[in-house]
Amino acid sequence: MNTYSLLLVDDEEEVTQVIERKIDWDKLGFCVIGHANNGLKALEMIEEFQPDVVMTDIRMPYMDGMQLCGEIKSRYPTTKILLFTGFDEFEYAKEAIKMDAAEYLLKPVNAGELKEVFERIKADLDRERDEKRNTDKLREYYMESLPVLQESFYMALLEGRVAARQIGKYAKDYQVNLSAPYYVVTVLHISTQSLPEEEREDPFLLAMAVKKYAEEQVDERWNSRFVIYLGDIIMISQLQEKDDLIAYTDEMDRLCRMARKVCNARVTAGIGYLCDSLEQIPFSYQGAKQAVSYRVLYGNIRSISISEVEPGET
To answer: The whole model's pTM is what?
Structure first.
C-alpha cells in the first residue's frame, strides 16, 4: 500500500495532537511527519520534507492558512491541502475553492468525517501516482524505442515517404536534429563479389563493422546520421557551405581507403547531390546510388561524387 506524508498546521498545539491521536494514520496510508504552529514555520517544513498533504487551520498568526495555501500552490502545486477552521463563514469556503483546496472542514473535527476525507485524498493520490508511473513507463519505453524510430524516419526520408509538411513534426517527435543549410546523402557500398569465397565475411556483420568505424572516424563537423539500409550504410550529412562538398568528398575517399585496412572491406562511397532542404533528401539519395554504380568504371575503395561524374545533372 502507498504511504503518504502529512504535515499538521495549527497555532493550538493541543488541536494537532488530538487530530494525530484520533486517527490510525498507518492504517489509512499516511504518516504524520510533524507539526507547525504558524504558516511561516509550515513553509520551512514543507520546503524541507515536501509532504504530500498539508492540513492547516485558517486563523493563525504571522501567516494565516489562506496565505499559506497560496504559497503552497505556487511553489508545490502537487501538494494536497486540507483547510479546517472553527469559523463557519461562507467566505472562507469560497476562498478554499479558489485556492484549489482538496477539502474544507469545520472544527471540532469529527474522527469519522476526517477518516472519510483522508480516504478520498488517498484515492486521489493513488490515482495520480499510478498515472505518473504509467507515464514514466511509457516515456522509458519511448526512449528505448527512439533509435528504432529514428532509423525508420531516416529510411522513410530517403525514400520520400514523408510528406513535406510532416518532416518537421516527425523530426521533433523523434528528437532528430537536421537543421543545416545543406545536406548530402552518401551510400557506403561494400563489394564482396571480387573476394575469394574463403575471404568473404558475413555481409551484415561486415556492414556493422564499417558503420561503427565510419561513426568513429567521420569528422563531427558533418553531423552525420548513419543507418544500414538494403545492405548499404547510408549517411545523411550536414554541410554549412556549398564548397564544403570538396572537403567532404576527400574525407569519404580517405574513409574508404582506411576501411580496407581496418575492416578488410572494399568500400565505395557514392556521394549524392547537394540539397538545401530535407524534402530533397530522396533526390540526393538517388544520386548517391547512381554514383556507386560508377564503380565499374572508376573502381572501388574510393569516393565517387555524382556531381563530378554527371556535372550536367541538377
So the answer is: 0.59
